[in-house]
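User: Second chain of the day. Same drill as before.
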Amino acid sequence: MIDTVADIGFDNLYAGTTGYSKGTFDETMSVIDLMNESQLPLPDLARFERSEFSEFHGWGDAVNKEFFAA
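Assistant: Same format as last time:
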């Protein structure tokens, strides 16, 4: 699972920012499947929903780390 998460990060460096990247999407779904099979709780993504994919060409606007901790 750790390797797949690392792959998502590496692949995201080269992924397009129009719509979604099939490569990173498929890997993300693989991690979710592994977490469900292992009965691990999925992380709360609500904090990240405040950062739009469309911001700064898919990289997101610059924010302080507290933006995600609040």
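The mean pLDDT is 81.

User: Great, on to the next one.
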